[in-house]
Amino acid sequence: MRLINFIVALSGVAIVASELQTLSNRNVAAGEAYEAQGVSSTNHLVPRVNTQGKEPTTTPQNICKPAKARRSKGHRLTQRALKPSQLSAKTDGTWLLYEEEWVTAVKVKMHDKVAATDVSRCTVAFFWNKDNVPSAYHFFCGNEVKDATKAVADLAEMGSKVEPVHVTIAADGPEKYNEIVDVIRKEFQDLDRNGDFTPLIYHKERLEADERYRYDAVAGSRSVRESKILQSECSRQNPGKI
Q: Is this prediction's pTM over 0.70?
């Protein structure tokens, strides 16, 4: 009786072993079929060879793309101060100023491009020296008077190289423009309100949800060009109407 039970047990083991071998063979075959289609048997994509000899296209991380517009209700802007130091490098050949950024005529050279971008509610000031080389500031909205006061005090300490003989101001309405003019004239009293200031009054209500203003200047020309752009991901503002 024990012999019969032993033989039955051996038969069961043989059947299980046979089934396991069959399952293993099927898995190997399936794996080879997946790999032939460009997919490994471990469910990870197998790198494909670029038959055209071209590198995969990637988006440079330092290039800002248009941000997706989001409309938010009750959004409040956090007041912030100017950066502690001016820009140290150009972006694509331009001194490009986002909120709270600035650069002076100490660094800007003749024929350099200077631009303030992603402007909505903020105030931008170009202080032109005697050679029409600008010191440019992008004042964040709500902080304009405080930041402009610090800016003109710093410019006064830097001396004749940056001393303004004319100022161009882009502002969201006449009230903001006049506030900045008053601040500047307290420090540079020789500047005439009517002759030495150029207003560029914009209206944020004319912007679409994903639009912002940009102001471009070229050192040596004392002219500023306004344009509308799509808000970029580099902006510190929340996308959408604010």
A: no
